[in-house]
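Researcher: Let's run the pair from yesterday's discussion. Sequence first, then tokens, for each.
Model: Starting with the first of the pair.
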Amino acid sequence: MFVSSFDRMYSPAEWRILELAHRRACTMLDRDPQFHPLAERVACAIIFFFERGERDFGRLASMAVRREQSLLKTNSGSTAIIQPSSVRLGCDPPRYLH
């Protein structure tokens, strides 16, 4: 069985917080948490804020949604397609948190 470095970094309780935050953020953005092309970017934002000390899944979700909306608003005037890797936060999360 393959075990990523992320599996060793977080406890089961921490993974649960990350998963709940990701699901809530994707729901707030009306995105499928597993299949939407930008779901990974949302997961990365959640991990980014989690690593800076936030542990409340509701606040993590809200912070990630605000960040995503800001990115979408910033890029709305451009003709470029927003790619999941277009803005990196310095982390490489697993494909999805679920």
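Model: Moving on to the second of the pair.
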Amino acid sequence: MEVKKFTLITGASMGIGKAFAFECASRGMNLLLIALPDDGLEETKKQINLRFSVEIITLAIDLRDHEAVRSLYDYCIQQNLVVNMLINNAGMGAGGKFEEISHEIYTDMLHLNIRALTMLTYHFLPMLKQHAPAFILNMSSMEANFPLPYKSVYTGTKNFVYAFSLALREELSHCNVKVSVLCPGPVLTNSDGLKRINAVGNRAKMIMLMPAEVAKIGVNNLLKGQGIVVPGKINWTIVKLMKLFPTGLKMKLLERLFRVYTDH
């Protein structure tokens, strides 16, 4: 009997996560969509069902909870759900002076951006290996390449995702499990995202992409086996050029560019 396989997407009810869901459905993939309770999951499912004939399972889970990942994995085992693609998209950020952001926000950010992503990969990796070819796409950020003043914890978490993904990719190079890390620049996902883009100004708008563009580029390159994916030619050029700057000069430049976050 043929096993029915699913693509698991976290943070799937809005923004890039929702775009991932549509992109994967357009390719005939069955979906296991995870998002916060009461966060538009059923509406996303309804919209996808109007356009694509794929099976969709939705689960309202707060991945910041310590037992959430294990509960999700246990659910899949109990329901005989086979995951052959894991898209670790869920995440959160904050900008401002380090000491002026609450420790609760930092705790949530560390749990969601690092702990949940790592434990999801840990629990589902044996299943992915068993049902290869399989794929892992981890959502980092273009900012993982830059230690940004006024976004120190956020960029630290995204740097972890970047390093973790590349290291795991090498570990799995002899398996048929491909790992990619997606590093987008500014993406217009919601009203808060628009405020952040407006705060940085025209330079952010020049490199801004829409969620559907990022999702398509991400999935295309994941399936091709690309390790690092930076959507947008300008973004990719900026990442390369910034590596040529001396660290001291680069940090002074970044501090001036992102000083706007002290007021936003």
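Researcher: Give me one sentence on the second I can quote.
Model: The longest strand covers residues 82-88.
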